Amino acid sequence: MNRRFLYICGMLAPVWFVFMSILGGAMRPGYSHFRDTVSELFAPGSPNKPFLDILHAIFAVLLILFGIGLLLFFQRTGHLIRIGQIGACLFILMGCVSMMTATIFPQDPWGASATFTGEMHILLSGVIGILSIFSMLLIGIWFGRTMTSPGFRVYTFITIGMVLISAGIFAASTGGAWMGLTERIAALVGFQWTFALAYWLFSREGTVG
Predict the structure, then answer these.
(1) Is residue 113 one of the residues assigned to a domain?
(2) Pairing with 104, which of 6, 48, 126, 145 sits 20 to 30 Å away (CA)?
């Protein structure tokens, strides 16, 4: 499998997420990007849900393909392979879990009675956050121990701190007028790291291994 293509998938995933969110909001009357979460676009009974489910599935596939690209990269570096491989596997798992959150376990409509699928959505969303942080942590450790790019190691750890802070702000704003905005900020903080890592790998393809 062409590794450059897999790295491009990593750069496309954050862009696709933004596109999907903006398009979904535009297609839903009364939707607010400041107040409403992205998951509400995929709640049962939401307008255009089948179409948006397809867009979300593409997003999840892009994450998975980039995770495979990460795994291939760490398999050929020749040192501290296991740390990188585990980080890549967690990234792939994050993409697989993300695939389920919109289609199999969508969020309950806001204000509706809780259902099993809705509770699972909340649980899986938490799992995605944990997988994302630990994947970044292990990849950051790999960068630090191999000294491949000390600057990217520092950038990774700063991003982890920003993710934790922004996630805390989102949790505190749940149910408020700015809930949608804080959720998007938390998501984009992590996604900008994904884009940067994918670009770093793409630019170095052919120079490692």
Answers:
(1) yes
(2) 6
Domain presence at residue 76: yes
Q: How many CB atoms lie within 10 A of CB 77?
A: 15
Neighbours of 186 (CB within 10 A): 21
Q: Is the pLDDT of residue 95 over 50?
A: yes
Q: 34 pLDDT exceeds 50? A: yes
The answer to whether 60 touches 94, Cβ cutoff 8 Å, is no
**Domain assignment of residue 209, yes or no:** no
Q: Report the alpha-carbon distance of residue 155 to residue 204 in Å, rounded.
A: 18
Structural domains in the chain (count) = 1
> 32, 64 in Cβ contact below 8 A?
no
Reported as a pLDDT band with limits 50, 70 and 90, residue 209 is very low
- 142-167 per-residue burial string, b: 16 or more CB within 10 A, e: under 16: bbbebebeeebbebbbebbebbeebb
> Could you tell me the pLDDT band of residue 169, with boundaries at 50, 70 and 90?
very high
The parent domain of residue 109 ranges over 3-204
